[in-house]
Structures are given as C-alpha cells and as structure tokens.
Amino acid sequence: MSAKQKITTFLWFDNNAEEAMTLYTSLFKDSKILSLTRCGESGPGPAGSVLVGSFQIEGQEFAALNGGPMYKFTEAISLVVNCDSQDEVDTLWNKLGADGGAPGRCGWLKDRFGLSWQIVPRAMAELLQDSDPAKSQRVMQTMMQMTKIDIAALQRAHEGR
Fold it and tell me: In sequence order, which residues have a C-beta less than 8 Å from that of residue 137 and are 6 or more positions away?
C-alpha cells in the first residue's frame, strides 16, 4: 500500500478478490492491480490462490482479501462514482450490474460480488442544490422514483416539464 494515502478501504471477498480487482480496474481510468500475495503450499487457501491484493481505481487505493464466506458486503458502505455524462452513468451501471448484479433505487446498485455502488451524475447535485426550493424538490421527487439516474429526466423536472 502507498505511503502517500493514509487511509485505505479494505474489501473482504469470499474467494473472488482477484476477479473483482480485475473487473474494477478494467472500468476506470488510472486503475491497476498494484500487488497480489498468493497462498503457498501451507495455505491458508489453495496454493497459488490470492490471499490479499491491492489495487487502484481513479488513483484511489484499495485492498482486497479473500477471507471466506463469513462476512458479506451490505449497503451500509458503498462506493460513490461521480459521473460527468449520461454515457458514463449508463456504461458503469451496465458493467457493474452485469452477471448477477442487482439494481437499487436512486442510482445505487450491487455488483456481482455484493459490493454497493452509487453511480451518480455530477449534474444531479447541482440540480438538487438549486436555490429555488420548488425546482430542487421536483428533482428530488423525480430522482426518488429512479433506479439508474437519468440526467435528462432530472433536467426536465428541474425546469417544471
């Protein structure tokens, strides 16, 4: 782990940490697997399997452990991705939600590993923070009905259309 980053998010996987790291690093710029520590003949897992690894997505370091099935991810923690366009929202939503992922409400989804993500456009915060409470309330009401966030629909609500 990097000495420049003081706090690192540590993610516990059953036995698919390397698969998760590979997926996550394939989806984001400035991303790579930094290190993998594999089990030897004495374990604790099968020889050659990943025990722990570190990876970087968008410059942020994470650690991953194949710790077994005892603990599962919950929505109590999620990774927020601030997107610049609807295309970015759509791409990440589709790729993170593929192969067993599950959509949630208001831009939340779980990936196939059970990790929760919030895929949100930057424009949403701007619309929600409008100084006109009627506009921001319309945006909030519209957003609360969505699974994947639709920027155009939020803009229409903001404009009262």
Answer: none
Domain residue spans in the chain?
1-69, 73-161
CATH H-level superfamily of 73-161: 2,3-Dihydroxybiphenyl 1,2-Dioxygenase, domain 1 (3.10.180.10)
State whether CATH 3.30.720.100 applies to domain 1-69: yes
Using left for φ > 0, alpha for ψ between -120 and 50, and beta otherwise, residue 41 falls in alpha
Given the DSSP bridges, would you call strands 102-103 and 32-38 parallel, antiparallel or unpaired?
Answer: unpaired
Q: Tokens 């990097």 sit at which residue? A: 2
> What pairing do the DSSP bridges indicate for beta strands 50-57 and 60-66?
antiparallel
User: If you write DSSP's letter for every residue of 92-114 in order, what string do you get?
Assistant: HHHHHTTTT-EE-STTEEE-TTS
Average pLDDT, the chain: 95
User: pLDDT band at residue 1, thresholds of 50, 70 and 90?
Assistant: low
Is residue 134 within 8 A of residue 161, CB to CB? The reply is no
